[in-house]
Amino acid sequence: MIPSTEAARAISFHRQDALVVSTSSALRDWNQVSERRDLDIDLTDCMDRAPGVGLGLSLAQPDRKVLVLDCDATLRTDLGALATIGESCPQNLVHFVFDDASHVSTHGIPVEGIDNVNFASMAQGAGYTRTFQFDNPEELFIGLEEVMRETGPVFVVVKVLHDQDLPPFPERSMAEGWSQVRETLLGGT
Amino acid sequence: MTTYESVLHPPAIIAELKKNNITHVVWLPDSETNFMYQLLNEEDSLDLVPVCREGETMAIAAGLWVGGKKPVVLIQNTGIFESGDSIRGLGLDINQPLVMLIGYRGWTRRGPTPDSAARYIEPILHTWGINCYLIETDDDADRISIACEEAERTQKPVGVLVGTEFGV
Question: Given A34, A60, A91, A174, which is the most exposed site by the fewest CB atoms within 10 A?
Answer without folding.
Answer: A91
